[in-house]
Write a structure and sequence with these properties.
The chain has about 425 residues and is mainly alpha-helical. Helices cover about 55% and strands about 0% of the residues. It has a single domain, classed as Alpha/alpha barrel (Glycosyltransferase). Helix 1 packs parallel to helix 3, helix 5 packs parallel to helix 7 and helix 10 packs across helix 11.
C-alpha cells in the first residue's frame, strides 16, 4: 500500500517531468518512501508552475502566450504589469531550488534546463527590443514586483546573477535604480523599496541607506507583539506577515548585517536576531492554523495567493532555522497536507498550465482590485524548502503529526502562550 501511494504521489506531482523513474523507486528503501514521495510531490507542483512561464519567456513569448486574467474589480492600472508579477514572483520562489548544485540525476537535468531558461528570461526582461521587456516604466505596482525580481537574484546569486552577460546586468541595475522615482506609501510597500536597495548593496552597487533603514525602523515600530506586525497604522488580520513583512524584513537585515551597513544608533546583528526570533514565533502561529485535514483559515486580503501564506515556514525550513518547537518532520507533514488540499483542484491551472485567480480552484470573484493571474505566482514562495537537497534532514526525517492533528485526535499537544520579544 505504501509503495502504491508513493507511485500515486509521483504521478500527481512529477510524472510529467520524469523526475523519478521506476528503477530509482526500486532502489529506494521502504522507510524512505514516504519522505521521497513528499519531495517528489512538491517538486512536481513547482515544476508545473515553472515550466510554462519559463518556456515562454525564455523565447520572448510570455506576452504572446500568457492568457491574461484580471479581477472583476480591477482598478484600471496598466495590465502589462501582470507579466512582471508573473515572472518576478515565480522566480523568487523557485530560486532556492534552481540554485542546488548540478548533478546527473533526472531532477538535476531538469533543473539545469530551467536554470538556462531563467537566465534567458532575465535577458528578455530588460531588453527594450524584446517582446517580453517588462513594465519597468510603470507606476507603483512595478516597484512591488521589482522586489521579487531582485529577491530571487539575492537568493541565488551564483545561479541567476553571476552567469548573466554584462549588458543584461547593467540593464537590470539601471532599471532597479530608476524605480527610486516611486515613493512607497507607509505600509508594507516600504519593504519593496528596501529589498531593491539591499540587493544593490549585496552586489557592491551604490545603494540608498534611507530606503533600507527607514523601512526597517517602521516595520519594527509596527510590531504589535507575539509575532504579529501591523501594516502601517492599522492591524489587518490577514497573511501579509507571510507574504511580505517577515520574509522581506529578515532578508533585508541579513544583507545589512553581512555587509556591515550603517544603521544609526543600532546594530544590524541585533536587528537580524530580533527579526528571526519574531518570525519564528509567527511561524508557530501559522503551524497551528493548519487543521487536521490540511485546511487553514481563508482570511483577509490577497487570499488568492494560496500557499504563499506559508512562506515563513518554508523560508525558515530552507534556512535551517525552524524554531525548536517545530521539528522538521512535523513542518513537512503539515505543509504537505496544505499543498495537497489547495493544489488538488485542477482549475487552479488553465488548460495550458498557467495559474488562475482563485483559492482552491478558479474563483476570479475572490480577487482584489489589484489581482491578476500573474499575481498568483507568489504561491511559489510556499516551495522554498525545495532548495534543500533530497538527502537533507528536512526531507528524510520521519513525518510527525502537527498540532491540530494531535489536538483533535484527543492526544497530548503543547499549549501555546504569548511571548514578549
Amino acid at each position: 500500500m505504501e509503495r502504491r501511494n508513493f507511485m500515486r504521489a509521483l504521478m500527481a506531482g512529477s510524472a510529467a517531468t520524469g523526475l523519478i523513474g521506476e528503477g530509482a523507486l526500486a532502489a529506494t528503501a521502504p522507510a524512505a518512501i514516504g519522505a521521497a514521495s513528499d519531495r517528489a510531490y512538491m517538486l512536481g507542483l513547482l515544476q508545473k508552475m515553472t515550466e510554462p512561464v519559463l518556456t515562454a519567456m525564455s523565447k520572448g513569448e510570455l506576452h504572446k502566450t500568457f492568457p491574461l486574467e484580471v479581477s472583476p474589480t480591477w482598478d484600471g492600472r496598466d495590465k502589462g504589469v501582470a507579466y512582471l508579477e508573473c515572472f518576478g514572483r515565480l522566480i523568487a520562489g523557485a530560486a532556492p531550488w534552481l540554485a542546488l548544485p548540478d548533478d546527473g540525476t533526472a531532477e538535476g537535468r531538469s533543473r539545469k534546463r530551467l536554470q538556462q531558461m531563467a537566465l534567458q528570461s532575465y535577458v528578455h526582461a530588460v531588453d527594450p527590443k524584446s517582446p517580453d521587456y517588462l513594465l519597468w516604466k510603470g507606476a507603483g505596482q512595478t516597484l512591488v514586483d521589482s522586489s521579487y525580481f531582485t529577491n530571487a537574484l539575492m537568493r541565488a546569486p551564483k545561479t541567476l546573477w553571476e552567469p548573466l552577460d554584462t549588458t543584461t546586468k547593467q540593464r537590470i541595475i539601471a532599471e532597479i535604480k530608476a524605480l527610486r522615482r516611486i515613493e512607497p506609501p507607509y505600509i508594507n510597500w516600504m519593504l519593496f523599496a528596501a529589498m531593491n536597495e539591499a540587493w544593490l548593496m549585496s552586489i557592491g552597487e551604490e545603494y540608498d541607506p534611507m530606503r533600507m533603514n527607514v523601512a526597517i525602523r517602521k516595520i519594527n515600530e509596527w510590531y504589535v507583539g507575539d509575532g504579529w506586525i501591523k501594516d502601517g497604522d492599522a492591524f489587518h488580520f490577514d497573511y501579509y506577515n507571510s507574504y511580505v513583512m517577515f520574509p522581506m524584513l529578515l532578508e533585508v537585515v541579513d544583507v545589512l548585517a553581512k555587509f556591515k551597513g550603517a544603521f544609526w544608533n543600532g546594530k544590524p546583528e541585533e536587528l537580524q536576531a530580533q527579526a528571526l526570533k519574531r518570525m519564528q514565533r509567527y511561524s508557530e502561529h501559522l503551524e497551528r492554523f493548519i487543521s487536521p485535514s490540511g485546511t487553514y483559515p481563508p482570511i483577509g486580503r490577497s487570499l488568492t495567493y494560496r500557499t504563499a501564506a506559508f512562506q515563513p515556514l518554508a523560508l525558515l525550513a530552507w534556512r535551517k532555522q525552524l524554531p525548536a518547537s517545530l521539528p522538521e518532520g512535523q513542518v513537512r507533514a503539515a505543509m504537505q497536507a496544505v499543498h495537497k488540499v489547495v493544489w488538488s483542484e485542477p482549475s487552479n491551472f488553465t488548460k495550458d498550465g498557467f495559474l488562475t485567480i482563485g483559492f482552491v480552484g478558479h474563483h476570479p470573484e475572490l480577487g482584489d482590485w489589484y489581482s491578476n493571474n500573474g499575481s498568483m505566482y507568489i504561491a511559489s514562495e510556499g516551495f522554498l524548502a525545495l532548495g534543500l537537497a533530497p538527502g537533507d534532514s528536512y526531507w528524510t526525517s520521519p513525518a510527525q503529526d502537527w498540532t491540530q492533528k494531535k489536538a483533535f485526535a484527543g492526544r497530548p499537544f503543547p499549549k501555546d502562550y504569548p511571548v514578549n520579544y
